[in-house]
Write a structure and sequence with these properties.
mainly alpha; single chain; about 70 residues
Length: about 70
């Protein structure tokens, strides 16, 4: 399973002292054949490189012709 709706705020934070509100996540956690992990498919070197590259390109385009970007 790749993504669970409502997983926001569960991963990447310390939840040791906070009850998890997501009932589907709690049900999945009790199953012996389910491994739960955060949604990390996007965090690849290639995807992050593309994000940085496209951000820089867009900043340079905006700097060159800001009137094209303002609605």
């Amino acid at each position: 399973m790749d993504v669970l709706e409502g997983e926001e705020g569960v991963f990447y934070v310390d939840c040791r002292d906070t009850p998890i509100e997501s009932q589907p996540l709690m049900r999945l956690q009790r199953l012996p054949n389910v491994l739960i992990s955060p949604h990390t498919a996007y965090y690849t070197d290639h995807a992050l490189r593309d994000t940085v590259e496209n951000t820089l390109i867009n900043c340079l385009r905006f700097e060159k012709e800001p009137a094209l970007w303002v609605g």
